[in-house]
Structures are given as structure tokens and as C-alpha cells.
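Hi,

Apologies if this is the wrong queue. I'm a grad student, and the batch job for Peroxisomal membrane protein 4 from Ailuropoda melanoleuca produced an output file that my downstream script rejects. I'm not sure whether the problem is my script or the file. Here is the sequence I used:
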Amino acid sequence: MAVAPQLRALLHAVNALLRKRRYHAALAMLKGFRNGAVYGAKIRAPHALVMTFLFRSGSLQEKLRAILQATYTHSRNLACFVFTYKGLCALQAHVQGETYQVHSFLAAFIGGLLVFGGNSNINSQINMYLLSRVLFALCRLGVEKGYIPEPRWDPFPLFTGLVWGLVLWLFEYHRPTLQPSLQSSMTYLYQDSNVWHDISDFLLYNKSLPS
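Support response: The file is valid. Your script probably expects a header line. Output copied below for reference.
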């Protein structure tokens, strides 16, 4: 019973600290680290689970280890990036006395080099994911600012055709240039569907089970 008042006092002190504006930048870095770790795990765990059991060979233990490793790496990298980005933004604002748009770019540029600069499968997937969205956003910004004429018709169908035309051409004739996970997915869809021996690997399974 003597613990409860002490715990309440500790929680009161922690909450009082969290409300102090003078520590806001440092605390925002810590919460950003927390949110990056949680979000990275939420995003990577289900993706790694599906991709590993669909396309990876090996024992159950090896597959689980691969899932945990991928989840940990994504979670750690995203947490470290958010922590670095928010810290560098706060540092620049403190040095210059106010916030400028270039602060965001410089902080993310340095954080990206430090955290996501290693050429690994996970970093590659994250960077490719961001690249497509950045290109979309830049096109919209260009139209919004008047640098790009606003289309008179919806360009999305043409964009879609170009994307699918290019990716299938690359897969069929320049496959090594594609990311390994994309190669695996497209092999399953377009190459494995050319091969079967009987009803078992035509309908029930992708490939024949060992006899």
C-alpha cells in the first residue's frame, strides 16, 4: 500500500516534466523515436510475414528469424531517422532563431544518408516507396505553382499504361534490374503460371509437391 503514493508522485513529476516547453524539442525527439519504432514494426511485420511464407524457402525457424530481423531493421531505421530528423530541425531552428523550409530538407537529407544510405533490401524498398510518392507530389506542386500546365484531361490512364508497360518489359527482358522482391512477385504471377503437370499444380498448388 505504501508504493501507491510514491508511484502517483512519480507519475505527477513525469507529467509535469512532459508539460515543460523548455524540453519540448528533446521530448519530441524521444516520442518521434518511439513512433518510428512502432510504425516501422506495424508496417514491416505483416509484409515480411506474407513475403517470407510465400517466396522464401527454409525451415520454420529460419523463416521466423528472417521475419523478426526484417521487422527489427525497419523499426530501428525508421526510429533512428525520425530522431535524427527532429533533432537536426530543432538544432537549425535554435541556431538561426526561427524555422525555414530548407531546414526540413537539410535535416532529412543528412538523416537519409546516415540511416537509409546503406544499399540493403529494406532500405531499397523504403526509398522506392518514397520515390513514387515524391514524384507524384512534385508534379502536383508544379501544377499548383503554375510551373506545369494543368492537364486538360486526366493523365492517370496514360501514366498507368506506361508504368505497367515498362515494368513488364523490364521483367521479361531485363529482369536483374528489378528489385528482388518485385522479381519474386512477378515470377510467381507471370512465369510460374506457364508451368503445370496435372490438376494439383494447376489449381491447388503453384508447384508440384515432392513425391
